[in-house]
Prior knowledge:
By secondary structure, the chain is mainly alpha-helical. It is 73% helix and 0% strand.
Amino acid sequence: MADVATDIEALRGLVRHAAWLADNGQDYGRAASMAKYFGARVAKDAANKMLQVHGGYGFSDEYAISRFYRDVRALRILGGTDEMQRYVVARAAFEEKGIRIQP
Length: 103
């Protein structure tokens, strides 16, 4: 639980930062991609850890965790795949140094 709670709080910080940039008319593309990528990772890790807490019962449709565990896969695709979000973040980091990269 401590790992999941810490990851969720870190994600909140990324989301707030991206929103602040957008609200202030600044370029928020990199920050939004970081938040989307990290958010999908946090959701996957949290669902996996909570499934472990439930043990074998976690796979039973009686418990909500079984659905969360299955649905979290879609988060890694919707809004741009993990690979695309990582590319956007890396491209922005390289561009800060004057280097242009292509996928």
